Amino acid sequence: MRVCEGIPQGEKSPPGSLRSISILDRLLLTVPVWLQLSINPATALHILQREPPGTFLVRKSRTSQKDVLCVRLADDSLPSFVQQFGIRQEHSSKSTTYRAVLL
Protein backbone atom coordinates (compact mmCIF):
# COMPACT_ATOMS: atom_id res chain seq x y z
CA MET A 1 0.00 0.00 0.00
CA ARG A 2 1.34 3.42 -0.93
CA VAL A 3 0.04 6.47 0.90
CA CYS A 4 2.03 9.12 -0.92
CA GLU A 5 -0.04 8.99 -4.10
CA GLY A 6 -1.94 12.17 -4.81
CA ILE A 7 -4.10 13.80 -7.40
CA PRO A 8 -2.37 16.34 -9.63
CA GLN A 9 -3.47 19.88 -8.83
CA GLY A 10 -6.55 20.90 -10.78
CA GLU A 11 -7.65 17.31 -11.50
CA LYS A 12 -10.70 15.75 -9.93
CA SER A 13 -10.81 12.06 -9.18
CA PRO A 14 -13.65 10.01 -10.64
CA PRO A 15 -16.50 9.24 -8.24
CA GLY A 16 -15.94 5.95 -6.45
CA SER A 17 -12.18 5.91 -7.06
CA LEU A 18 -9.77 5.33 -4.18
CA ARG A 19 -8.36 8.80 -4.74
CA SER A 20 -11.72 10.41 -3.93
CA ILE A 21 -11.57 9.24 -0.29
CA SER A 22 -9.29 10.29 2.55
CA ILE A 23 -5.95 8.63 3.26
CA LEU A 24 -7.33 7.28 6.55
CA ASP A 25 -10.28 5.68 4.76
CA ARG A 26 -7.93 4.22 2.13
CA LEU A 27 -5.80 2.71 4.89
CA LEU A 28 -8.85 1.23 6.59
CA LEU A 29 -10.17 -0.23 3.32
CA THR A 30 -6.83 -1.83 2.48
CA VAL A 31 -5.93 -3.35 5.87
CA PRO A 32 -5.91 -6.92 4.46
CA VAL A 33 -3.21 -5.85 1.98
CA TRP A 34 -0.71 -4.11 4.28
CA LEU A 35 -1.37 -5.77 7.66
CA GLN A 36 0.71 -8.96 7.33
CA LEU A 37 1.29 -9.96 10.96
CA SER A 38 2.23 -13.57 10.22
CA ILE A 39 5.13 -12.96 7.80
CA ASN A 40 8.79 -13.00 8.85
CA PRO A 41 11.39 -10.28 8.13
CA ALA A 42 12.84 -12.11 5.10
CA THR A 43 9.41 -12.44 3.50
CA ALA A 44 8.71 -8.75 4.14
CA LEU A 45 11.96 -7.82 2.36
CA HIS A 46 11.15 -10.15 -0.54
CA ILE A 47 7.69 -8.64 -0.98
CA LEU A 48 8.85 -5.02 -0.74
CA GLN A 49 11.83 -5.57 -3.07
CA ARG A 50 9.43 -5.86 -6.01
CA GLU A 51 7.35 -2.82 -5.03
CA PRO A 52 7.83 0.90 -5.73
CA PRO A 53 9.27 3.27 -3.11
CA GLY A 54 6.73 4.31 -0.49
CA THR A 55 5.09 0.89 -0.35
CA PHE A 56 4.75 -0.43 3.17
CA LEU A 57 3.47 -3.30 5.26
CA VAL A 58 3.13 -4.09 8.95
CA ARG A 59 4.36 -7.36 10.40
CA LYS A 60 4.71 -8.77 13.93
CA SER A 61 8.20 -8.80 15.48
CA ARG A 62 9.33 -12.33 16.34
CA THR A 63 11.23 -11.21 19.44
CA SER A 64 9.24 -8.41 21.06
CA GLN A 65 5.74 -9.29 19.82
CA LYS A 66 5.32 -5.64 18.79
CA ASP A 67 4.24 -4.62 15.33
CA VAL A 68 6.90 -3.45 12.87
CA LEU A 69 6.32 -0.96 10.03
CA CYS A 70 8.44 -1.88 6.96
CA VAL A 71 8.77 0.85 4.29
CA ARG A 72 10.31 0.47 0.81
CA LEU A 73 12.95 3.17 0.26
CA ALA A 74 13.79 4.89 -3.01
CA ASP A 75 17.49 3.98 -3.19
CA ASP A 76 18.20 0.40 -4.32
CA SER A 77 21.94 0.89 -3.82
CA LEU A 78 21.66 1.05 -0.03
CA PRO A 79 22.52 -2.14 1.87
CA SER A 80 18.90 -2.32 3.00
CA PHE A 81 16.25 -0.87 0.70
CA VAL A 82 13.65 -1.30 3.47
CA GLN A 83 13.54 0.76 6.66
CA GLN A 84 11.91 -0.87 9.68
CA PHE A 85 10.22 0.94 12.58
CA GLY A 86 8.89 -0.57 15.78
CA ILE A 87 5.33 0.53 16.51
CA ARG A 88 4.80 1.55 20.11
CA GLN A 89 1.25 1.77 21.41
CA GLU A 90 0.49 4.33 24.10
CA HIS A 91 -2.87 4.28 25.87
CA SER A 92 -4.57 7.12 27.68
CA SER A 93 -8.05 7.43 29.12
CA LYS A 94 -9.28 9.14 25.95
CA SER A 95 -7.35 7.58 23.09
CA THR A 96 -4.66 5.23 21.85
CA THR A 97 -1.59 6.71 20.18
CA TYR A 98 0.75 4.81 17.86
CA ARG A 99 4.36 5.91 17.41
CA ALA A 100 6.86 4.52 14.92
CA VAL A 101 10.34 4.15 16.43
CA LEU A 102 13.38 3.48 14.23
CA LEU A 103 14.76 -0.01 14.93
TrEMBL record:
Coiled coil segments of this chain: none
Domain SH2: 39-94
Top-level taxon: Eukaryota
Pfam families found in the cross-reference section: SH2
Record-linked SUPFAM superfamilies: SH2 domain (SSF55550)
Designated name of the protein: SH2 domain-containing protein
